[in-house]
Each structure stands twice: as C-alpha cells, then as structure tokens.
Design brief:
Strand order of the largest sheet: 2-1-3-4
Distance between the termini: 32 Å
Strand content: 5-15%
Number of strands: 4
Shape: globular
Helix content: 55-70%
Largest sheet: 4 strands, mixed
Order of helices and strands: HHHHHHHHHHEEEHEH
Length: 205
C-alpha cells in the first residue's frame, strides 16, 4: 500500500473509533500534556481546515510560537465542535494532501498515528496500529527527529518485542512497537509498558 492510501485508511479507521467514544472519554486527558482527547482530535485535523495564510496569521498572533498557536487553536476548535464534527473532519479529509513542514508523507502518517495513540493509550483502548504503518514510522526514527519531540535516545537501544526492529546502541529498552514509537516521539507512557532502561524511559515526555 502506498503512503497516501495508508494515511487515508488510518484517518478513516480512527474517525470510526472516535464515533464510538463516550462523553466522558472525549473529556479525558490524553498523552499530550494539558490536552483532552477532544483537543487532540481537533489538532489532528488542523492542517486540513486552515490555509497557509491563515496559519501564518495565527503564528504572528502567537508571536512566532508554533506551540502557542497549535495549543490555542486546538482548544478553541475543540470547544466549538461536536464529537461528530471532530470525527468527520478526519473522515472527510482522508485523502487531503496536507503534510507537516518537514518530512513529507511519512511525517503526515506519523502525525495521524502518534496522535491517535495519544488518545487510545491514554484511554486504555486496545487499538493495534497495523504493522505496515508502524514499520514505515519506526524506520524513520532518528536521533535528530527524536530530539525535536523531546526524546533523548543517546545511549539507548530500542528493541521491539512484537516484531523484528531495533534502533541505536546502549542500554536496552524493550516493548511493543507502538509503545516504542511513542517513546521516540517524546511521550510519557503509563508505568510498566516498557522494560529495561526504565529510568530513561520515565524521564521522557
């Protein structure tokens, strides 16, 4: 499956998952610090709903801070939208060509998959991202990319225990592929999901 089709399938599948969330789950915290599930869902579709001039105007308003801009827009849009709209924004834009500023289609897939896991892992939902999507993202992990998301992989070897993949050298940190992907993206995981270099894992996020 090509990357565009992977992205479209991921968005449709995740929109279907969002359709099944309860009112309490929509208001629950996600793995993104300070964001509820609905805030993450709103952020996931931001790139489809704002033109480049609109994004630049919002960035100026946020005094050049990408973090302030995305945080404000996610909270504002989440407050204004219904759960149905939040899901439909993903479904209706399944084949939207948006990509993040760096990384092209691989980064677009990573944006969808990782933010989806920010929701499902925090809610304790047993959603397994298909292996082909995980492999694309795991194979794109780099020290530089991890540092951008706040994860320091220096002196660590990440090794999956559910498929054949490893990255780096040093103290071994093992766990399911999607949990190690989250770790490489700087997420703080629930205790006990990763094994090995636990102090380093606990410090991430």
């Amino acid at each position: 499956m090509d990357l565009t089709s992977m992205i479209a399938t991921e968005r449709r599948e995740f929109a279907d998952l969002l359709d099944g969330l309860t009112a309490e789950q929509w208001e629950a915290p996600s793995l993104c610090t300070g964001w509820r599930v609905r805030d993450v869902a709103a952020h996931m579709s931001m790139g489809f709903r704002y033109s480049l001039p609109q994004v630049l105007a919002q960035l100026v308003r946020a005094r050049g801070s990408l973090h302030r801009m995305t945080d404000r827009l996610a909270r504002r849009d989440a407050a204004a939208a219904t759960p149905e709209q939040l899901a439909d924004w993903l479904r209706e834009n399944a084949r939207h060509p948006w990509t993040p500023p760096v990384g092209g289609l691989v980064s677009a897939l990573g944006h969808d998959v990782v933010h989806g896991l920010d929701i499902t892992v925090a809610l304790g939902l047993d959603r397994q991202v298909p292996e082909d999507r995980l492999r694309v993202l795991l194979d794109s992990v780099t020290h530089k990319g991890a540092r951008f998301f706040g994860a320091d992989l220096t002196g660590l070897q990440l090794r999956t225990d559910d498929l054949d993949w490893s990255f780096g050298t040093g103290a071994t940190l093992t766990g399911p592929a999607q949990d190690l992907l989250l770790f490489a993206f700087g997420r703080r995981l629930p205790e006990g999901r990763l094994k090995g270099a636990v102090p380093r894992a606990a410090a991430a996020g």
